[in-house]
Amino acid sequence: MKKIAILTSGGDSQGMNSAIRAVTRSGLANNFEVYGVRRGFKGLIKNDFIKLGTKEVSDKLYRGGTFLQSARSETFKTPEGQAVAVENLKAKGIDYVVVIGGDGSYRGAQALKRHGIKTFGIPGTIDNDIPLTDFTIGFDTTLNLVTELVGNLRDTMSSHERVSVIETMGRNCGDIALQAGIASGVDAILIPEIEPDIEKIAADVKAGFDRGKSHSIVIVAEGAGNADDVAKKIKERSGLDTRATVLGHIQRGGSPSSFDRVFSSRLGHRVIELIQEGVEGVGLGMEHNQITYHTFEEIFNAKNKIDKKLYQVFEDLV
Ligand code: ATP
């Protein structure tokens, strides 16, 4: 009987649990023995495995976070740490490892592959910053959440005739800010991929109030600056009452959206199909609504790009 282990690593995202459930249930249906590794690569080093049956993954599909828990492990980046992890996997007779996480976690998966372990990557991060997939699991849920929170801020900003500067997550990727900004009809979006013009933003915000607007919303991706700085600059230039809000970790929680549940189910299911097709050493994703895969090298060599056309949509509609 073939053995497969699943781990979640790096920052958690909504939909990781549904991906674990999908790999587990598809694996069990195809006579695999399935294990969960607790706390990502740290758990591989600590030999912290739990056997997963169908019951262990019931009631998980709609829960945020990851019930296997996630961690960052500096030790795993070292040859010594990796040697211990590989030894533990071999001692357990594990043939395949599924790593659910972001870019760093994919590098960990590639390291295991170099040691002869057959690995798969499932893109689990809210940031949407993994190349060669249109989405990462958690991104859609976060987008919906941020759009709702921006709406809440709009209500109170409007009552008090204020400018709201809202900082979103996303590391060096502006996708959350850009898409939530379009979905919320905000007045300005600052993303790391495009040099911001703070003078113009402040002037536009001021002009909006002069035309009779009762509020203004500016979204800043964390990679483009911080909300306090941007709010200060807008206040200095416009004289308007400007407030900063950092949304923070609230963006990473909550029940996954229907899209993320279906997407992660498709990815997890496809891993087991790929094993049967003899494919391994790849990261999965979705392109043009098809589940696709690429080698880790291809993914690392590709560049994650902002959708310039989408930015144009924002600029033309603002
Ligand atoms: P997120 O984008 O949500 O932060 P991530 O997967 O990019 O997720 P990282 O902290 O970069 O998060 O990586 C998670 C873990 O992957 C690290 O703690 C480490 O154990 C492992 N890892 C990262 N880079 C490497 C590497 N170059 N070699 C081996 N392992 C790595």
Automatic annotation (TrEMBL):
Catalytic activity: beta-D-fructose 6-phosphate + ATP = beta-D-fructose 1,6-bisphosphate + ADP + H(+)
SUPFAM superfamilies: Phosphofructokinase
Annotated Mg(2+) binding sites: 103
Binding residues annotated for ADP, in chain numbering: 21-25, 154, 185-187, 211, 213-215
Residues bound to substrate: 125-127, 162, 169-171, 222, 243, 249-252
Primary site of residence: cytoplasm
Alphabetic keyword roster: Allosteric enzyme, ATP-binding, Cytoplasm, Glycolysis, Kinase, Magnesium, Metal-binding, Nucleotide-binding, Transferase
Binding site for ATP: 11, 72-73, 102-105
Phosphofructokinase domain mapped to chain residues: 3-275
InterPro entries, alphabetized: ATP_PFK, ATP_PFK_prok-type, PFKA_ATP_prok, Phosphofructokinase_CS, Phosphofructokinase_dom, PKF_sf
Domain of life: Bacteria
Subcellular localization: Cytoplasm
Pathway assigned to this chain's UniProt record: Carbohydrate degradation; glycolysis; D-glyceraldehyde 3-phosphate and glycerone phosphate from D-glucose: step 3/4
Function: Catalyzes the phosphorylation of D-fructose 6-phosphate to fructose 1,6-bisphosphate by ATP, the first committing step of glycolysis.
Protein name, per record: ATP-dependent 6-phosphofructokinase
Source organism: Amphibacillus indicireducens
Gene that this sequence comes from: pfkA_1
